[in-house]
Design goal:
The chain has 351 residues and is of the alpha+beta class. 17% of the residues lie in helices and 36% in strands. The radius of gyration is 22 Å and the shape is globular.
């Protein structure tokens, strides 16, 4: 169950025109090139799952020498990091993606327009290559294990990996709730992939874990990251009508860099397209589970952000943030829902 606190203020964008973009491609040391003045088309995919967030970018019509730097034919690019920021008007630029470059390639849309395409992942080396190899003595607590695992992941992003040099992307601790102070009864050895040990630690702490802009983040399954919700309304960028789906409430807005994974939004709209439930007997338990979880609504319009995908084109119309959210106070307990539904299904679905 995701619980809410009392009345809170909300955050909203001051302006939503005169859009601006900054794209920096950098070496492991941080020296880089800025491409904000070019035509840039981008898509970022962010979620609260442990799989690294990703970003796909195309930079159009570069000089041949610059294209060779970014994507040398038959060679390895010196650039390993990518930082993407956006803003409106005179507002300060806000980060929507930071990660390590995994692939660069060159292409052409037609005889006039060439591009360099870049695929990047957030914390890729830390996720895929960081080994855990340490021991904690009896009396250690969860926070000690958490700190040690983050240190091991940070080292992996700086060192060479089986597929090339480290990106240099710093890995640090992001938001995490207060962990259990209960000490280990006996010592424990951590050996294997850090991602596996992190998953076990998150499960013990009743959290989900992910890497957000190089920060290892723990989000309680019964809560969210504290902070004022972002106001989503027709006057602050809401596009179309929010749609209930089996994955959660889908919302589209003008690109909004204030929206972060694990935080909340306040949806100021009474129009929501309701989910169509299945009508067969086999759908009864699924329908009930959806009513309690993905298809639940919040009377105050408060929703937890599970996914936030930003897309844009500095020379086109595309400039959106697509969200998948779940209502605050929504409960997703599949086993319990199936059991209750099998005994006493909701009246609307009885036959």
């Amino acid at each position: 169950m995701v619980t809410s606190t009392g009345s809170r203020t909300v955050r909203e964008m001051s302006t939503q025109y005169l859009r601006r973009l900054s794209l920096i491609v950098a070496t492991p040391s941080g020296a880089g090139l800025e491409f904000g003045s070019f035509r840039v088309v981008f898509e970022t995919h962010r979620g609260d799952t442990q799989t690294p967030n990703t970003c796909d970018i195309k930079i159009y019509n570069l000089q041949q020498s610059t294209a060779n730097q970014l994507a040398p034919n038959g060679g390895v690019s010196e650039f390993t990091q990518l930082l993407l920021k956006v803003a409106y008007g005179s507002d300060p630029l806000m980060q929507i993606f930071y990660g390590s470059i995994k692939q660069t390639r060159r292409g052409r849309e037609d005889q006039l327009n060439s591009y360099v395409a870049i695929t990047a992942a957030d914390g890729d080396e830390a996720y895929n290559f960081a080994p855990a190899a340490f021991t904690l003595a009896s009396g250690a607590v969860q926070q000690t294990a958490f700190t040690n695992l983050i240190q091991a992941m940070a080292q992996a992003s700086l060192a060479s990996t089986p597929v090339g040099q480290g990106s240099g992307q710093p890995i640090t601790q992001g938001y995490a709730p207060t962990m259990s102070p209960t000490p280990l009864i006996r010592g424990r050895t951590y050996y294997g992939a850090c991602r596996d040990e992190m998953r076990s630690l998150a499960k013990a702490a009743d959290c989900t874990w992910s890497i957000q802009d190089g920060k290892v983040t723990f989000i309680p399954k019964t809560s969210y990251i504290p902070g004022d919700p972002v106001l989503i309304s027709p006057t602050t960028g809401l596009i179309g009508v929010p749609e209930q789906t089996q994955n959660g409430l889908e919302v589209r807005t003008l690109l909004n860099p204030n929206i972060k994974i694990g935080q909340t939004i306040k949806l100021q709209s009474t129009d929501i397209n309701a989910l169509r439930y299945g009508l067969d007997n086999q759908s009864v338990s699924t329908n009930f589970s959806l009513q309690q979880g993905a298809a639940a609504t919040n009377a105050d319009g408060l929703y937890y952000v599970m996914r936030a995908e930003h897309s844009g084109d500095t020379r086109g119309n595309n400039w959106y943030t697509d969200l998948v959210c779940i209502a605050i106070n929504a409960t997703v307990t599949a086993a319990q829902s199936v059991q209750q539904a099998a005994i006493t299904p909701p009246a609307v679905f009885q036959y």
